[in-house]
Amino acid sequence: MPVDHYENFPVASWLLPKRLRRPVEAIYRFARSADDIADEGDAPSAERLRQLAAYHSELDRIESGDIPTDPLFGPLAEAIHAYSIPLAPFRDLLSAFAQDVEKTRYANFGEVMDYCRRSANPVGRLMLHLYGDHDPRHIAYSDAICSSLQLINFLQDIAVDFKKNRVYLPQDELVANHVSETQIAESDPCGMWNTMLLKQVERTRKLLQAGAPLGRQLKGRFGLELRVTILGGETILRKLHADPGCVFNNRPVLTKKDWINMLRRALF
To answer: What is its EC number (predicted)?
Structure first.
């Protein structure tokens, strides 16, 4: 999977072309810091939203050609101007982070996917833009990959998110499978838990596979980075499939052996 704290972001790893590392780092810092505003610390909701609104204001300054007042936005402004990066993906990310402050339950899968459209898909679109790829088909592949990675992260973090009073599993599907939030609170994988989670895994796998051709269509180090990312997602899904209850007591992660196997498969 993509590394470090912001799970769906390829953080300027050594696999990326060297010329892209600085702009990717600038974008990552923006996304990471904004996500932390929504998720970390004890600030009240109103203060979190105020800080996110300030990020919108800094984007407005960049768009108008003014110098940002927050030092964090200096490198980002340089990247945006140097690569003519559109601002809509940044605003979509802020919209998703602001939603996390106020919305803690999702009625159905459509609501979850709308969140993914703003919280994850902008990342892939920004990366494709930096790569110079504006093919609509490739953008569609990228959206499928990024949304699936966000869903995988939700499945990994069911217990973690519940401690923050967030449930990203669709409420109607929990009801249909007779799974209650009490089960999540008690880390109880009994009853229909496995059936429900395996349905989530299979749907997510199909979405990831729908976007996977992009990994072979993009050339060079960027394509390699993407193939490793896809394989990381597949690996986590296999672990979830093998043990649907692991989300409660043994959160699935990538091991050193996994990384070696992923890199070997991505190369050959």
So the answer is: 2.5.1.21
